[in-house]
Every structure is written in structure tokens, then in C-alpha cells.
Design brief:
This protein is mostly helical. The chain has one domain. Helix content is about 75%, strand content about 0%. It contains eight helices and no strands. α1 runs antiparallel to α3 and α3 packs across α8. It starts with a helix and ends with a helix.
């Protein structure tokens, strides 16, 4: 693999993560916004499962910092939660690769629930945030979009011959 192709592959990964951040910021009506999947986390999970030697927990932490900045949340909350989810995905990536898309979607739902729960618990202790049942709906919508996102990102990975 030449350095140019390696640079191209890094740019592709960065571009997909930036697209995830843009999708997380895209304006939506209030009724639909509560169902918004956690796009940056979904894309991060895909790359960790597909290329665990290229995406590290440090990248997950930096992505979480970017999410904190873009969403205006308490600095470091998403960063820590993303790092924990990334560690879990990286630790079990070989098993997850062998799961069917349905089982992967269920696992993604659990990982997003873990991330949302960690963020809520910290927000609760810092700011006494009230718990609303709508807060966890993105876990369900993330599981629903996972098969399509997985197939799109896999096609991109194969197009750029990323191994």
C-alpha cells in the first residue's frame, strides 16, 4: 500500500466522520429530531468494527469532543461515552463481524443506549437534568438505520480498497 492510498483512506474515514457530525447538526422539526440517530457514533462503530487498526479510542474521544462542541453540551461528556463505546466495539470486533445485520443492529442499539445512559447520568449529576422517555429513542432509530449505513460504508470501504 502506497502512502498516497493510505492518505486517501484516512481522508475517506475523516470525510465520513465529518458527514456524521453534519448529520448530527442538521436542522429538523422538534417531532422528528427526537428520533435522530446518533450518526457520529454509528459511523465510528462501523469503522472500529471494519478497521480496528486504523480507528483508535483516541479518535473516538476526539470525535466525542467535536460532538460536545457542536451540540453545546458539557465538555467531555460525549468524549468519555464515545471512548467507552469505542473500547467495547474494539474489544469485540471479531465477534461482531460474524453477526448478521440484525444482530449487529441490536448490538448497536445497546451501544447507543449505553452512550445515552452515560451522558444522561453525568448530566443528571451536574445539572439535575430531568429524564424524559424520548431521550432514548435515538437508540431505536440508530438500530433501524444501521443495516443501510453498514452497507453504504462497506461499499465505500471496498471502493477505496481499504483493508
Amino acid at each position: 500500500m502506497t502512502s498516497a492510498s493510505s492518505l486517501t483512506q484516512r481522508l475517506v474515514i475523516c470525510a465520513t466522520l465529518i458527514i456524521g457530525l453534519v448529520l448530527a447538526m442538521m436542522p429538523m422539526s422538534v417531532g422528528v429530531a427526537v428520533w435522530r440517530p446518533d450518526w457520529p457514533l454509528l459511523i465510528l462503530i462501523y469503522w472500529i468494527i471494519a478497521l480496528p487498526h486504523r480507528i483508535s479510542i483516541g479518535i473516538a474521544f476526539l470525535l466525542g469532543v467535536a460532538v460536545d462542541i457542536l451540540l453545546g453540551s458539557t465538555f467531555g461528556i460525549h468524549a468519555g461515552a464515545y471512548a467507552l463505546v469505542a473500547y467495547t466495539a474494539a474489544r469485540h470486533y471479531q465477534r461482531v463481524r460474524n453477526f448478521s445485520l440484525l444482530h449487529q443492529a441490536l448490538l448497536v442499539m445497546v451501544l447507543v443506549l449505553v452512550e445515552r445512559s452515560l451522558v444522561y447520568i453525568i448530566e443528571y449529576y451536574l445539572h439535575n437534568a430531568p429524564l424524559m422517555y424520548r431521550y432514548f429513542w435515538p437508540a431505536l432509530s440508530s438500530a433501524l438505520v444501521w443495516p443501510w449505513l453498514f452497507l453504504i460504508l462497506r461499499k465505500i470501504r471496498r471502493r477505496f480498497q481499504m483493508v
